[in-house]
Amino acid sequence: MTQRKSKLNRDEHGRESFPVIGMGGSAGSFHAFEKFFMHMPIKSGIAFVIVMHLDKSHVIDVAGILQPVTSMTIKEALDGVQIEPDHIYIIPPGKDMGIHNGQLLLMEAARLRGAHMSIDYFFQSLAEDQQSNAVAIIFSGMGADGETGVRMVKEKLGMVMVQEPGTAEFDSMPVTAIQTNMVDYILSPEEMPVKLIQYLNHPAIREAQPESDFTLNQTSYTHLQKILMLLRANTGHDFTLYKKSTIVRRIERRIAFHQLNDYVDYINFLRENPAEIMRLFNELLIGVTKFFRDRDAFEALKGRLYPLLAEKKENDPIRIWIAGCSTGEEAYSIAMLIIEHLDTFKMAKLPKLQIFATDLDPRAIDYARSASYFSNITSEISPERLDRFFIKVNEGYVVKKEVREMIVFAQHNLIKDAPFTRLDLLCCRNVLIYLTSELQKKIIPVFHYSLNPNGLLFLGPAESVGTFVDSFTSLDNKWKIFQRNEGAAALGNMLDFPFHVANQSHKNLTIHLPIKSLKSPLAETFHKILLESFTPTSLLLSERGDILYINGQTSRFMQINSGEAIFNIHRLAKDELKYALGNALHQAWEKKDKIEVPEIKVKDGNEVYVVGFRVDYITEVPLQDMLLVTFTDYGKLKKRRSDKGKGVDPTRQGAVEELEKELIYTKQQLHSTIEQMETSLEELKSTNEELQSTNEELQSTNEEALTTKEEMQSLNEELMTINLQYQNKAEELTQLNNDMKNLLDNTEIGTIFLDNQLNILRFTPQVTRLFNVIPGDVGRSITHIVSNFEYPSLEDAIKEVIETLVGKELEVSTKKDEWYNLRIMPYRTMDNFINGAVVTFTKITPVKAMQHKLVSLLDYARNMAGLLPDAALILDKDRKVLVANDRFLELFKLKEEEMVEQPFMEIVHNKWKTDKLDELLTSSDPDSVFMQQEFQGLGLRGFFVKIQEISRDENGKTLVSLVSFKTQE
């Protein structure tokens, strides 16, 4: 055995990092601790913390008991002490102990219903504080303390050892820990140190990368893919999108467990040992939970969930999905909360509660269905809830039937299987932390799709909805309670469900390769200068004239008017351009070609400018069916020099004015016509909008149809889930029926099951010897069936048993002189209701024959004893009186009923007050003895007592003996 030597690792606080071993046991495990430390090296670089069930009233010097077997420093833990390697710390009596940042913290022991789970308390604290450096060891002890702690340590990638139950003084704690299926080693105390140091010194454990620095090179990634391929081939489940750091750490622990060199050896080991593939699969699926885990989180959930449920009507179901339910504690916790709230409803008919609890691990689902938990749950559940929702069975608790019936447990894969829909609450705690961010981005939209409007999403404290903050409203940031928002949701992300992990790219790899940038700062600056200085003002428009993109200065061509802000070219274009631009846009759209307008005068302030524009219809993807308007500015309008000094004809001047007026009128008429055209265009636009609205409704209908399809798929999944559960129940029922049939057939006991009206429900084949029944008589009253024995009051006897609940037993004989023991008992259901009676017939003909034979033999023995001249008794093998002749009864003034079936030794001691016959009666080779005794009422009597053997069994033991009393003459 070598000492633990490793490079200096430090935790997040800068302290040296070393393994911390939590050791749990009862006060009777001292011997196991002695054996362990006797074989443990003094300098191992490990700290040990012993947690025992020690009561304040019993002062036990644990350190003094263990000090002779080890040279390590042993001390009783003090509040706030910093643990050090190569030290042993012992919990003080009557305390609970935790660990935080490497410091041991003491508190007064919390006792609930007499339960003191100090080992569970410390192991859970150890797992949270030390993570993968934690090791839990369970030694001898009574009860189930440590079972939950073992689960927590394994969840945090720690290691668990358990004492071999055969070597434990009390095996209850070791057996309970083993039943979790999370124990790494089951060894005797003296074998543990070797395995412990081998495991901790393995490079895969000693040189494990911190979570923050986790990387995976190409070679390791290839080996990992091979392992995932073997898992998929043998289990049907693909772990490609699970967090690589968690998978690698689990694999490394299996490598260290088997003391293999590297991934290559482990891959070969997997191929040669298929059972190891299932063990690795179970390791990857380790899910730890407990009743009301994070109690404050459930209190916060109540405050958000109860108002939502209060809005439910009588016919509205309450639908809840527990995704990743593990062994079922969380599902039952939610059920308890809902049931407690439903009791406050003042309705004639309460809403129906449907809880779907799913997990990938089939073993966990089977455990959850059994609803059987160890006694240590008393530290997690209040006494009131224990009394209301649980039944005490042996050393544990079973959830009551009415709670179990509300929950459907099923195996379900979040990645492949359709989700449950129309949910009021979706609880998925501590599942997403094991998935990659890419997979989380796919699953969160599925959760959004599954929830009802305002439905709640309940995640673990280290989880969130990521980038989907618009789809959910955070109701509690600390305990991660979210409410579904209405809106477009993420239906697009649902279209590729189920997610095909096989087609995922290598983007999940933490291999970072340098990527050469395709953009140059020089080119970007050059393009920017060209766009701003040398390209004309341009607009990108939709068919309706909505402006999608602007390039250049547009103040000369557009103006913003007061009123409603509408970003449309027909509203923003200046008056001089509006009509020409509108006509050009219309022609370009109709002809699917370009239209040019060369010169238009535009007034800008006090100046007049000449501009032109061109409208192009775009056919290139992705700007297909859009319009590009490009403006050209020709500068200011040049004014012609006026002819000064020349005369002007007044008549011509009037004609010009008239023409100007006519032109103004024409412009007004044109403007009116254009407005009418715009009105018609608006009506056409309105009609077009209606058509678009109709189209959107059709698209919405199509989306609803798609959603309905998804819901049908989900409903089908629910039906398949429920059908699977029914199949499992049917298989269990078939097995139970087979067992019951074989039991009844082999016991040769005739049984009839009757309801409260004495109608036959079922019967065993042996009953046909006593009643003339056939399978077609099921449902008929037993009073209509002819029996083969004489007992006229059978009907009255059965009714009496049903009414009084007191069983009846008697003997009856058939017409063929066969004797049966008739037993009538009330039929009790699992809910303790009386639902008829059970009548059983046990054949006792041989027993009756033996009784008759014994009576005949006793009569013979009595007659033979009467012929003897002396007082005599016949005794059986137990020295009980079988026969006393008349001479004996007369001699000692006794009655026969005082003697028969009574131990003769008691008569000698109690009535005769002597022990002179003890040696004679107990001797294996009896002879005779003379006895002289003063008898009350008889005076002094003397006689010879002699015992003679009458018969022996095959082993030589005396069966019947004769005791004769001959008086002294």
Notes on the protein architecture:
The protein has 969 residues and is α/β, with parallel strands linked by helices. The chain folds into seven domains: 20-201, Rossmann fold (3-Layer(aba) Sandwich), CATH 3.40.50.180; 213-284, Chemotaxis Receptor Methyltransferase Cher, domain 1, CATH 1.10.155.10; 295-508, Rossmann fold (3-Layer(aba) Sandwich); 525-636, PAS domain (Beta-Lactamase, 2-Layer Sandwich); 653-740; 748-843, PAS domain (Beta-Lactamase, 2-Layer Sandwich); 862-967, PAS domain (Beta-Lactamase). The chain contains 28 helices and 35 strands. The strands form seven sheets. A seven-stranded parallel beta sheet has the order 3-5-2-1-8-9-10. Strands 16-12-11-17-18-20-19 form a seven-stranded mixed beta sheet, with helices on both faces. A five-stranded antiparallel beta sheet has the order 22-21-25-24-23. Strand 33 and strand 34 form a beta hairpin. Helix 3 (118-130) runs parallel beside helix 4, helix 8 runs parallel beside helix 10 (263-272) and helix 10 (263-272) packs across helix 11. The chain is elongated, with a radius of gyration of 47 Å. The model is unreliable at 1-8, 488-492, 500-518 and 640-646 (pLDDT under 50).
List the helices and strands and how they pair.
Elements: E1 20-25, H1 30-38, E2 47-52, H2 62-66, E3 73-76, E4 81-82, E5 87-90, E6 95-100, E7 103-108, H3 118-130, E8 134-138, H4 147-155, E9 159-163, H5 172-178, E10 185-187, H6 192-201, H7 203-206, H8 218-235, H9 244-257, H10 263-272, H11 274-284, H12 295-310, E11 318-323, H13 329-342, E12 353-359, H14 362-370, E13 372-374, H15 383-389, E14 390-393, E15 396-399, H16 401-404, E16 407-411, E17 423-428, H17 437-450, E18 451-459, E19 472-476, E20 481-484, H18 491-494, H19 521-533, E21 538-541, E22 547-551, H20 569-572, H21 575-591, E23 595-604, E24 607-618, E25 626-636, H22 650-747, E26 749-754, E27 760-763, H23 794-804, E28 808-813, E29 819-828, E30 834-843, H24 845-866, E31 871-875, E32 881-884, H25 886-891, H26 896-899, H27 904-910, H28 918-922, E33 928-935, E34 939-952, E35 958-967
Parallel strand pairs: 1-2, 1-8, 2-5, 3-5, 8-9, 9-10, 11-12, 11-17, 12-16, 17-18
Antiparallel strand pairs: 4-7, 6-7, 13-15, 14-15, 18-20, 19-20, 21-22, 21-25, 23-24, 24-25, 26-27, 26-30, 28-29, 29-30, 31-32, 31-35, 33-34, 34-35
Helix pairs in contact: 3-4, 8-10, 8-11, 10-11
